[in-house]
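Format notes (please read before filing issues)

Several people have asked whether sequences and structure tokens are stored in separate files. They are not. Every record keeps both together, in the order shown below: the sequence lines, then the token lines. Line labels are part of the format and must not be stripped during preprocessing.
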Amino acid sequence: MKIHIRKKETRVSAAQAPRASVIPKAMAWMALGGFLLVFMNALMRLMTLEMNSLQAQFLRYVFGLVVMLPLLMRDGLSAYRPSNMKGQWWRGAVHISALSLFFIALPHVPLADMTAILFTSPIFTLLGAAIFLREKVTAARWLAALVGFAGVIIVVWPHLAGGVAGGLAAEGAAAGPAAGGAAEGGAGGAGVWTLVMLAASPLFAASFLITKSLTRHDSPSVIVMWQNITVTVIALPLALPFWSAPTGVQWGVFMVCGLLGSAAHWCMTRAFSLADISATQPMRFLDLIWSALFGFVLFSDTPTAFTLVGGAVIVTSTVWIARREAMERALARQQAAEPSKPAV
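Then the structure lines:
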């Protein structure tokens, strides 16, 4: 009598293993993109202290487009024709809305605090990914994001608790020449600009969600190319009323910012193409470390105790979710490699 042995199929585990294995890569791309973006923001803050914020915004994206032109000339127009042109313009419109609020507030808010304020964006992104993209957001990812958000609250609490009233009184003096091109506000003024920066957060989240949707049909290079095109076109009429001739040094800084910005968005778009947004967003909390370093070097900003404690909470949540994702990847690989038990 022969006993027929049938191998139990392990399709679920085998399918999960490759998916799990790319999550750490996606998180690494997101961390690198965040570092480059903070570097660019530090340089852009220098520029917004010297010229109008809306002009600085336009020039940043002009040079983002310039650094992409060699790729366009090499590959041809057809290589960058998007599958969803309407989606590209929607993303550009949403992104310029967020950027306008961001750049107007940028010269008035310390770099580390600015980064911490924008950490609310992953919370909006996780919520939007669950509602609009129907991504599965695990309890662990929600917990990591919420713990990180608690760290953000610690960082911004001094501004939110005591700065708003003073900021309303000082708003006229702090505005400077045409929408934020001059000096930084005081402790009170930072309260109003904190709220302006905070208002940009859900708009950035919406832009990230649109980007994630676009990665289903277009490559990161196509998306970054069209981000530079759409934002440049929309930003031009906003910049013209406040135009002043940049110096040679400023032209050079904007060129560097164009390189950094395009590279940062390519890294982030690459991360979105590899894994769910909910898996990669906790890595954005590392941006606080980079911004504290750049703020100290370029602006002599010393992080406050609130920033250090909040940063420790944020880093803890980031390290924890990274380790957990790595363990899940290892488990998926182990399950895929195990021989199936014979069925008699």
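For reference, the curators noted about this record: DSSP finds 13 helices and two strands in the chain. The first strand starts at residue 6 and ends at 7.
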